[in-house]
Write a structure and sequence with these properties.
The longest helix has 20 residues, at 355-374. This protein is elongated. A hairpin with a 2-residue loop joins strand 28 and strand 29. It has 711 residues and is mostly beta strands. Strands 22, 23, 24, 25, 26, 27, 32 and 33 form an 8-stranded antiparallel beta sheet that branches. Strands 1-4-5-8-7 form a 5-stranded antiparallel beta sheet, with no helix packed on it. Strands 6-2-3-10-9 form a 5-stranded mixed beta sheet, with no helix packed on it. The chain has 7 helices and 33 strands.
Length: 711
Amino acid sequence: MKRLHPLSSAVVGIAVVLLAGGSALSKGSGATVGSVLIAHASGATTVTVETTAKASFIVTEITVPHRVLIDVRGAVLPGDVEMPVGETPVVEKTVVEEFDEGMLGKTTRVTLHVTVPVTIAKSIEKGTRLTVTLTPKSPLPSPAPAVKPKAEPPASAAKADKTDKPTGVTGTSKASPSPAKTTVKAPDAEAPAPKASAPTAPAPKASAPTAPTKAAQEPAAAPPAPKKAAGTASKKPPSKFIGSEDPSIYDFGEEQTAAAFTTLAKQVAVAKKVKKNEYTGTKIDLDFKDADIHNILRLLSEYGHINIVVGDDVKGNVTLSMKNVPWNLALDVILEAKNLGKVKIAENVYRVAPKETLDKERQMKIKELKQKKILKPLITRIIPISYAMASELKPQAAELLSSRGTIGVDERTNVLIVRDVAENLSLIEQLINNLDTQTPQVLIEARIVESTSNYSREIGIQWGGHYIASNATGNPTGVVFPNSITLAGGGMDDQTPTSGMNPFGATPNPNFAVNLPAMVGTGAGGALGISLGSVANNANLNIRISALENDGMLKIISAPKILTLDNKPAKIEQGTMIPYSQLSAQGVQTAFQEAKLSLEVVPHVTADGSILLKLKINRDEPDFNNRGARGDPTILKRHAETELLIEDGKTAVIGGIYTRNYGKSYSQVPFFSKIPVLGWLFKKRTDTDRRSELLIFITPRIVNRAESLGK
């Protein structure tokens, strides 16, 4: 049988326990590995390990070189059955071996030599079937050719010697049949013949055995564990394992602790085990008075088909009466009553000793382990730092040092000088390799889009004229009073536009009665004038129609961009300084107000490659159309400040403002403007519509994504 050493500092790599099922130590009779099956489908390899009884499964991953170890504690290899193992594109070699872990018992190990780093998913059914799915973290380099399955001859399983039947038991015992279905049959065992252990103790009469001659012991039927989907997709990367000490060094099961039943909490734990049906041994009846503890333990070992080694310091008599209880529960209760503890030495072999003795032995083992660690030689290693400052990484590395270790920094060469044992040096180097990576560089590009549209329309009317009836014009009224009449419009002044009323000469006074023109002129709108008059010019009618419409659109795009490191603030701006007058006690002084376009940002790259941004965006510009009392222009301000999370390379709209100013006004003559249709001769209409829209877009990109995030 090949002896395998547990994973320790001698293995160059990183180990992590990913899953475990069952207890740390096997209970009851030993288990046997029935089969190891390997299959490959949909780019993933599935490994299935089955045992004949409940066992403890531990899966360990080693990164250098790539290995996956499946340890089945408390299980041995059959001597006449070959393990059906094979190779897949993910697993290039499989080795199945058995080794002895001393007090922890025998363990069967399945070593999988994987070709690429893998993601591990697991499921355990009833404590006897383990399914491990290995999904490559990266595409396979090339499809592996079909390989015939290999089988290695397993080591033969050691057979436990049958213990002798106990003698000299004062009392009686009988086994009652277990209500559960028997899956593993124990060898035939007859009830021992009770004998008097002391001449002074009265020996009770032995009762007739009522239990069947064959005792059966069955493993615990645990409910099936829920299965997990293999290779579950997740954007967030898994945490990185750096390393650990050998877990088997400190692997003390509950059965190995001397103070198993010294406190009330431990007694409550035993009661919970009974309630949960964790004691599944053969149920028996016990009735003893002043029976020697050695004979009681021999009797229980016979029913439990285990070997119990009792030291000379275990003494005393036991008086008890128990009906229909599992043999292993009876064993724990008796040990608790006598202040004893038990330790599993090997498969199916237990040692019983006083708790004080076991406590001392455990403390001695811990001291021995500490002494071995102290005696290990110190090694000095120089670790270069490429992207970070060595002084910044020193505090994190110092936490992994032992009490003998030291660490220093050489600022000139930017290196760490570490002196410690080999295991801690490997942990520190792995930590530094994961922390000393390129800092992500983020390019932030903002786009500020402004759109403005203006629309206005005016429709105006001017009309009027004059009428003269007099002797001078040859059309007197013919009466004494009024002998002459003059009628003319009076709604005009020197600023009234009269263009178009007389294209042949000087423009006469049109005498507009309604003077509501549109603001037309060079480059704006249009007007049409009509003049109607008599031959003697004693009657004249002038009409002028004007209309104006303006429609404009303005679009402004500002695109500031800047490149910065992760978690480092950056700022870029462009603008003008506007002078303005400021009155103070010293007189009139000239001050300056800044109108600028600026972008301020602090990016943070998350573990899954997204970017968290803190943004401040300003766009200020002078407005020369609106001025102050001293003629200084006003400033139009546009400002946005926010925080957001956005994926790399994606564009997001962080904000926007939309405004609309709509107006309609009338200039009109009272009463007459209300007349339908004819009212348009007495009013002017003005329509205005102003719309403005502001949108701010942001697009961050990680420039060195592959180097900084490994994607």
